[in-house]
Design a protein that fits this description.
Layout (H helix, E strand, L loop, with lengths): L1 E12 L2 E2 L10 E3 L1 E15 L2 E20 L2 E22 L2 E17 L4 E21 L2 E20 L3 E20 L14 E13 L2 E15 L2 E11 L4 H5 L3 E2 L3 E5 L4 E5 L2 E2 L9 E14 L4 E13 L10 H4 L1
Antiparallel strand pairs: 1-4, 2-3, 4-5, 5-6, 6-7, 7-8, 8-9, 9-10, 10-11, 11-12, 12-13, 13-18, 14-17, 15-16, 18-19
């Protein structure tokens, strides 16, 4: 059996100009953008195994004009990428197997404020395994295993620098689902039973050029009655940083117009992007408890309550939208 699909799309946007000031005719509020994308998919089978192949490509061109030292400066960014993924699904020695192989290449050229030329190549493989291990009175104990490996290489060349980076990532994760109790049914069922109870324990580990990350998670599910469900989840993790987050060269992004709440004026901001070598590895702890009930009686009425707590240290992310509280 085979099935194929091919698609493409393109879009463009004209740049918006400033309507006041000496640079009204040349400085853009939002960059002009044109893009073209294409995708292709193919599926088939080989005996009891299912096969798939997907490919997608994208071209994009962005142009903007910003003020630097009081003078308008044109910037242009042209990028292209190609990604191909193959997948394999089937059964092997009692295990459900899911495997994928991915390859990607991309190129990015910038001119104007931060002229540079960068190229990136990435290859990655993923493998997932799952199966029931043995039976307990409440049901089968199930195991899930996953592994991932990737290799990447990037080259960036600017006016005053040239960098080449090679990176690797290896990851392992696994979980074990254990049913502890199951609600009996039938004439022999006792008048009182605590209901269905199951526990899932998991762990993961990631190794990169920048360090090692690891995590642990625990889930608890209790169904004392068909219309009442209780769930609890806890996890802790220490992540490793990507090399690009720490060592990517600095460059100017597209100009942004934001409202300054202190002065009451709209101002143009020229963001400086790139890596930060002072970043520390982030860690996080999460806890959630939930109770859900329903449907109740003859009406499809359902309800629930959830408590969650998240604690993150040295997290890496984008700044939130500007507000008076944030600017203060």
């Amino acid at each position: 059996d085979r099935d194929g699909q091919l698609g493409r799309s393109g879009c463009g946007e004209r740049g918006q100009k400033r309507k006041d000031g000496p640079a009204a005719e040349v400085v853009t509020l939002r960059p002009a953008s044109e893009s073209l994308s294409a995708n292709w998919a193919q599926t088939g089978s080989l005996g009891d195994w299912a096969l798939s192949l997907r490919a997608n490509g994208r071209l994009q061109d962005r142009r903007s004009t910003a003020l630097r030292d009081g003078e308008p400066t044109d910037s242009r960014q042209t990028s292209g990428s190609l990604n191909m993924t193959s997948g394999l699904n089937g059964k092997l020695a009692g295990w459900s197997v899911q495997a994928a192989l991915n390859g990607a290449v991309s190129q990015n050229e910038r001119s104007g404020l931060s002229p540079s030329d960068s190229r990136t190549r990435t290859v990655s493989a993923n493998l997932g395994l799952s199966r029931p291990l043995f039976d307990l009175p409440a049901g089968p104990v199930a195991a899930n295993l996953a592994a991932r490996t990737s290799r990447s290489r990037s080259e960036t060349e600017g006016e005053t620098f040239r960098t080449t980076r090679s990176g690797h990532t290896e990851g392992l994760s696994g979980s074990l689902s254990v049913p502890l109790l199951r609600q009996p049914f039938g004439d022999d069922a006792p008048a009182f039973h605590p209901g269905d109870v199951s526990v899932t324990v998991g762990a993961n580990m990631t190794e990169t050029d920048s360090g090692r990350g690891e995590g642990t998670n625990l889930s608890f599910a209790w169904t004392p009655r068909p219309a009442l469900r209780v769930n609890a989840n806890w996890s802790t993790s220490a992540q490793s940083l990507d090399d690009a987050q720490r060592f990517e060269p600095e460059y100017y992004g597209d100009p942004l117009v934001v409202f300054d709440f202190l002065t009451g004026e709209a101002v143009e901001v020229l963001p400086v992007l790139g890596g930060n070598p002072d970043l520390r590895a982030p860690s996080a702890d999460q806890l959630s408890l939930s109770v859900a009930a329903g449907p109740l009686g003859a009406f499809p009425l359902q309800g629930g309550i959830t408590y969650s707590r998240n604690e993150a240290v040295d997290g890496v992310g984008a700044l939130p939208a500007l507000t008076p509280e944030f600017e203060a």
